[in-house]
């Protein structure tokens, strides 16, 4: 959204400078008049290179940022603070430049008479369809503070779930990176020194030594081809994943990965249940809720199961039966949803399912960490050991010949 700079006079006749976001020059004038200012000068901020603006555009609005915003917004609304005043306070307190700019833009739109949810819809990088739909339901039902509380709780739970998964991946990623770095360092810089010694010995080299020297030669002489190959594989993977078939194939395979497949499935079920339950509890229609959950599922196989559920419901069927067809959700989750449909307490049961599988994710993360630590140590030791063995085997052979 464009930024405008204005010089205005307030009701006391004092001149001041205003800087704000607006969609157009006309909207900018309307914004200033509504605040009771007399406009002396108004112009659009220059679009030349602006490091601060570039930094704002590149900034990511995290789940935690949105959770803090929602929690503070709920507290202000619950305390009876008007929405415009609340947005002004939240913009001042925000440490995220992109979120701050979005809040200022939303404030401008709301002051012009636009609904809060519609104003937020203009900033998909900050407020996705899930967030906007729940805000819209809160506006219609007159329970905006309650919906903001639910959003804060939902986002906090999602952030906690993400942190648990990241903690499971952090150790193997760091150790794997170190293992590769050490392997490349020893292969490129250390092995060539021993290669000269091996030539002077004039003895036939063992197969392992020949293999490691060949790898060293490739990395030293053809390093640019190695990098190009890695880039090519990465780009090919990304392009394939963007296709419908590629995404479904990769996401289906990810659910079958040893150790990690179970973690992905449980986290998907937990996220689906928490999001779906929060939407239905906030008064969002079930079909709309399923469409939103589908777009935020993060896994195409889970999205396909949700699509099947939407079609089944449109035809008068049951959610549990539809989810069971794709065989993505665990039997226990299906049974709990089936019971909730019979008792009419779907949102409450979905929250219980989310609590259960979030605990399961936590336990799975702990189990994975305990399993991966020794595995990664063995892998690291094996890579270094292979290099050392390849260096010392020829020497052992020479010593045997001398003996």
Can you put this structure into words, describing what you see?
76% of the residues lie in helices and 5% in strands. By secondary structure, it is mainly alpha-helical. It starts with a strand and ends with a helix. The mean pLDDT is 83.
Straight-line distance between termini: 81 Å
The overall pLDDT, averaged over residues, is 83
Structural class comes to mainly alpha
Taking pLDDT < 50 over at least 5 consecutive residues as the criterion, the unreliable ranges are none
Radius of gyration: 29 Å
* Strand line-up in the sheet with most strands: 2-1-3
Helix fraction?
over 70%
The portion of residues forming beta strands comes to 5-15%
Overall, the morphology is extended
Largest beta-sheet details: 3 strands, antiparallel
Number of strands: 3
How many separate helices? Answer: 17
Reading the helices and strands in chain order gives EEHEHHHHHHHHHHHHHHHH
Keywords:
403 residues, mainly alpha, three-stranded antiparallel sheet, extended, 3 strands, 17 helices
Question: How would you briefly describe this protein structure?
Answer:
With 403 residues, the chain is mostly helical. It is built from 17 helices and three strands.
């Amino acid at each position: 959204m464009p930024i405008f700079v204005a010089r205005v006079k307030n009701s006391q006749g004092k001149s001041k400078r205003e800087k704000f976001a607006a969609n157009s020059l006309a909207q900018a004038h309307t914004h200033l008049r509504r605040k009771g200012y007399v406009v002396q000068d108004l112009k659009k901020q220059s679009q030349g290179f602006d490091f601060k603006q570039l930094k704002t555009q590149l900034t990511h609005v995290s789940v935690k940022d949105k959770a803090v915003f929602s929690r503070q917004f709920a507290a202000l609304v619950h305390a009876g603070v008007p929405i415009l005043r609340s947005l002004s306070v939240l913009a001042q307190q925000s440490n995220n430049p992109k979120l701050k700019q979005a809040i200022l833009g939303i404030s401008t739109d709301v002051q012009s008479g636009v609904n809060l949810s519609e104003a937020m819809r203009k900033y998909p990088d900050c407020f996705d369809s899930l967030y906007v739909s729940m805000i819209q339901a809160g506006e219609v039902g007159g329970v905006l503070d309650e919906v903001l509380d639910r959003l804060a709780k939902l986002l906090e739970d999602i952030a906690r779930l993400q942190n648990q998964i990241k903690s499971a991946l952090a150790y193997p990623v760091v150790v794997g990176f170190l293992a590769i770095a050490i392997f490349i360092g020893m292969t490129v810089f250390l092995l060539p020194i021993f290669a000269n010694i091996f030539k002077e010995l004039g003895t036939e080299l063992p197969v392992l030594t020949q293999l490691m020297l060949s790898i060293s030669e490739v990395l030293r002489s053809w390093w640019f081809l190695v990098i190009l190959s890695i880039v090519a594989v990465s780009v090919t993977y990304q392009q394939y994943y963007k296709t419908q078939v590629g995404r479904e194939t990769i996401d289906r395979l990810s659910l079958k990965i040893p150790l990690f497949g179970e973690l992905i499935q449980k986290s998907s079920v937990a996220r689906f249940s928490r999001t779906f339950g929060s939407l239905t509890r906030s008064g969002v229609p079930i079909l709309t809720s399923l469409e939103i959950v589908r777009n935020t599922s993060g896994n195409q196989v889970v999205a396909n199961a949700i699509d099947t559920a939407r079609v089944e419901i449109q035809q008068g069927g049951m959610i549990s039966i539809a989810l069971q067809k794709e065989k993505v959700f665990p039997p226990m989750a299906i049974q709990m949803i089936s019971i909730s449909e019979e008792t009419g307490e779907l949102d409450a049961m979905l929250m219980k399912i989310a609590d259960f599988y979030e605990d399961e994710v936590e336990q799975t993360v702990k189990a994975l960490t305990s399993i991966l630590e020794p595995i990664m140590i063995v892998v690291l030791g094996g890579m270094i050991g292979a290099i050392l063995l390849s260096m010392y085997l020829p020497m052992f052979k020479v010593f045997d010949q001398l003996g």
